[in-house]
Design goal:
This protein is α/β, with parallel strands linked by helices and 294 residues long. It has twelve helices and ten strands.
Length: 294
């Protein structure tokens, strides 16, 4: 039985997945972990990328989950894995050579630990800076870079598959792990690089994802109607007041014109306008979902 299983859920990002697996194939903890890639409905070359990594010697297997659902995909990955500890990373990450080893070292003292490390956004695999204070995060459980014991995952019930759109399924699981007494530990050595090229996603894609995330935020709030959850999701009066002031319909129309102008969109004001439109889509979806089910 390996000490750890790295679970990666992916969908139609074969090129990014290849870069992640190449990094996992040269880990200092070789022989102590396996990789489980869950293909969540891909129509690209994802199966071929997994097969190539296996032929190259990486301890890896791929399993299909046809219906796009991140929670269901990760649950399937956990069920198919055999490690005592489960490490999660995204398909668009580049784990440094000591990433798995750092997670395992941080877990040695207390198996109930939830171990997190810095997530460093980079343009690609060229410039990979060391983590700094700006990379610290208080997030308890983010599946871009986190590890937890299989026993604790099973006891908490795994991911809630009712989060069937983008967002919040990992935070929800973190709430349940914390309620069971899991303690979060931060490891600077367990840092990971998150490939996020400038303008990688068109604005309409970002707005669509924000709309999904807003709907899932409402689901999270209904399930855990606590102040910390409302603060985390932005469902509190001061944030709504800010949005009413800065994202009123006349301003949104102006923001949309700025974002549609290629020259203006690259300016600081244009970038602010794009962020405001994304935020407005998120809050609109959250409030609509809360009203619809309330």
């Amino acid at each position: 039985m390996p000490d750890a299983s790295v679970v990666i859920a992916t969908r139609n990002r074969a090129g990014l997945l290849r870069g992640c697996l190449e990094r996992l194939s040269v880990q200092s903890a070789a022989g102590r972990f396996e990789v489980v890639v869950v293909d969540n409905g891909s129509t690209d070359g994802t199966p071929a990328v997994v097969a190539a990594a296996a032929r190259a010697g990486l301890a890896i297997r791929g399993i299909p989950v046809a219906e796009p659902n991140r929670g269901r995909a990760r649950n399937a990955g956990i069920a198919a894995s055999s490690g005592a500890s489960i490490l999660f990373c995204d398909d668009d990450t580049l784990p440094p050579r000591g990433w798995v080893e750092a997670h395992l070292a941080a877990r040695d003292a207390d198996p109930k630990r939830v171990v997190s490390g810095p997530i460093i956004n980079v343009e690609g695999d060229g410039d990979l800076p060391q983590p700094s204070a700006k990379n610290f995060s208080r997030a308890f459980f983010c599946t871009c870079n986190v590890s937890v014991s299989r026993v604790e995952l099973d006891a908490a019930g795994g991911f809630d598959e009712r989060y069937d759109l983008y967002g919040w399924e990992d935070t929800d699981l973190g709430v349940r792990l914390r309620e069971r007494g899991a303690r979060r530990v931060w490891s600077w050595g367990a840092h990971i690089y998150h490939v996020k090229p400038a303008s990688a996603q068109p604005l309409d894609t970002r707005i669509a994802l924000a709309t999904e995330k807003g709907a899932m935020a409402a689901r999270f709030i209904r399930k855990s109607p606590t102040l910390p959850v409302r603060l985390a999701t932005g469902a509190y009066a001061l944030n709504f007041a800010r949005a009413a002031l800065l994202e009123a319909p006349p301003l949104r129309r102006w923001y949309a014109r700025l974002a549609a102008d290629p020259d203006a969109a690259r300016s600081p004001l244009g970038r602010f306008a794009a962020e405001a439109l994304v935020d407005a889509a998120y809050l609109d979806a959250m409030r609509l979902a809360l009203r619809s089910d309330g």
